[in-house]
Amino acid sequence: MAEPVHYRVADGIATVSIVNPNRRNTLTPAVVDGLDEALTAATDARCLLLRGEGDTFCTGGDLVGIVEHTHGELTREALLDRLAGIDDLIERLYRFPIPTVAAVDGPAFGIGGTLVLACDLAVAAETAKIGFGFGRIGMPPGGGTSALLPRAVGPSAARELLFTGELLEAGRAAKLGLFDRTYPASEFTAGVASLVDAIVTDGIALHNETKQLLIENDGLSLSATMAAERAATRRLLGTEQQLERIRSFLEAGGSKHGRDPTTVDKE
Fold first, then answer.
1. Listed range (111-115, 127-131, 168-172, 257-261) with the worst mean pLDDT
2. 45 beta partners
3. What is the pLDDT of residues 33-73, one digit of tens each?
4. Among the listed residues 188, 76, 89, 214, the one whose alpha carbon sits nearest the alpha carbon of residue 142
5. What pLDDT sits at residue 48?
6. What pLDDT score was predicted for residue 52?
């Protein structure tokens, strides 16, 4: 398994952990590769549990790549290829043939929030937060967010969350439908285990059929949405507006090493 992703299977449960604390578990190319490998390995499990090691679930996409592009250190096409790789990962997780559960006990921001949306169920500690602040770095939604978020919270709430980039506390996120269950921090691990144990009591064939029905009966095309998002990214990436947003982000305390965007005050 490629670092920095850890993978283990026990009692039919595949646990996939993002272990990239120095960059707040952002989706660097190494993390994307590791998650792809984990999904390949997990197809024979009965349930997949996705989590972030440490005090963060995942605070976004390849911020380092975006900053490198801003500094002229990464070509436009190379960055777009990286972002397309994240799209592929999100779609693969969304269509994964067994039930998937996101265990969120820290910030899930930007594409980190989209990883949560791509899972079948999301369980959160009361300390968790979630937001979709793509605009803070002058970028449009990615990873299918503009399809997945309205499905979860409705079109009106989705517009608000995307336009404001608000970072939601666990309680409000649960009321909107972003988290299926919330637990006090002290009960989070036991709560996640209880849910996952209930899922794996049924056979893998039943869950495979159920997942396929859910996907086939979904009226919107995630692939088409991602294609539209990539087109929007191509239109915005490298424009003066986008560059000014990333400069403002960096001046507010962001860094080439992927400072946590959830700590940056909204403009």
1. 257-261
2. none
3. 999 999 999 988 999 999 999 999 999 888 888 889 989 99
4. 89
5. 97
6. 96
Q: Percent of the chain, pLDDT > 90? A: 66
Over residues 175-196, the mean pLDDT reads 97
What separation in angstroms does the CA of 64 have from each of 26, 30, 182? 9, 12, 32
Nearest to 136 by CA among 186, 61, 197: 61
In 3D, which of 258, 261, 250 has the Cα closest to residue 31? 258
**Spatial separation of the C-alpha atoms in residues 239 and 67, rounded to whole Å:** 14
Domains of the chain: 5-184+203-260 (3.90.226.10)
List beta partners, residue 169.
Answer: 129
Nearest residue to 179 via CA among 133, 126, 123: 123
- Rounded Cα–Cα distance for residues 86 and 263 (Å): 23
Nearest-angstrom CA–CA distance, 258 and 25: 10
What angle, rounded to 10 degrees, do the helices at 63-70 and 240-251 form? 110
Query: In this structure, are residues 5 and 31 in contact, taking their beta carbons and an 8 Å threshold?
Result: yes
Beta strands in the chain (DSSP E): 5-10, 13-18, 47-52, 100-104, 107-109, 121-125, 129-131, 167-169, 181-183
The length of the chain, given as a count of residues: 267
Task: Using alpha carbons, select from 80, 93, 28, 17 the residue that is nearest to residue 54.
Answer: 17
On whether the CB atoms of residues 64 and 22 are closer than 8 A, the answer is: no
